[in-house]
Amino acid sequence: MKIKDLPTQEYILPGNRTCAGCGAALAYRHALKALGPKTIVVVPAGCVTVLHGMYPRASVNVPVLHTAFETTGAAASGVVAALEAQGRDEICVVGWAGDGGTADIGIQALSGAAERNTNYLHVCYDNEAYMNTGTQRSGATPCGVRTATTPGTGKAEQKKDMVMIMAAHGIPYIATACTAYPMDLYEKFVKARTIHGTKYIHILCPCGPGWGFDPADSIGIGKLAVKTGVFNLFEIEAGKLRFNGPSKREPTYDVEAYLTPQKRFRKFTDEQVEGTRQWAKETRRRLEAMPRASEP
To answer: In the chain, how many domains are there?
Structure first.
């Protein structure tokens, strides 16, 4: 797939309320292009709720159901059940939740939907904190990051590995993506739409205000996350993993290049920088130890 071949139809309308350089908005734009008009999106509280705007106006032109923070998986399951009762299998149901609505508050409903293998796609747009309520720490916040709820020495725990949690459910398709690589993201959404059962896509979405970088650097920050091994691009199908894009190559592990431009890491000690490097290496080692899928 080449950029010039992307659909010209836009499903996010001009004038939405996201911040400049918002990674979540970029991901949403390309995902909706891949999914097309026969899509229903279920959205809990979060940044994308802000993107949609306030009733009775909306900044997207696909049907959207706004639901409570913890209920994305349950609400999406209800939409799927209603469509199945009508014999309609052409509609793609998508739960579009942030890391708080996925890894923390929404994990129970998500796990239940995955256990049932509900025919929907759950997307986690991961900006690594509760951004639209003042940058509070989430389970996806990296270790050592200072937030409104982790002052002082920062978050004590490592980032929750939601991808492996979902892999443990045995669902048919899991993928990671990053807004810095839109064609990889687009192709994974096209693929997910064709698969029956619960699908899970985890997207790293750089956040200028929350991470503390110039909005113009949003794409560059995302590329550094992937190239340094802080975030890996891959797919898991039938328990087998395939690396994608730059992640096919060994990361540089030059994590300083990724950490230094972001104010949220500005008080990191040398020990914390080295800890991040070792965490990235260990994460990669665990991924490489999984059964590998052949190249398409």
So the answer is: 1
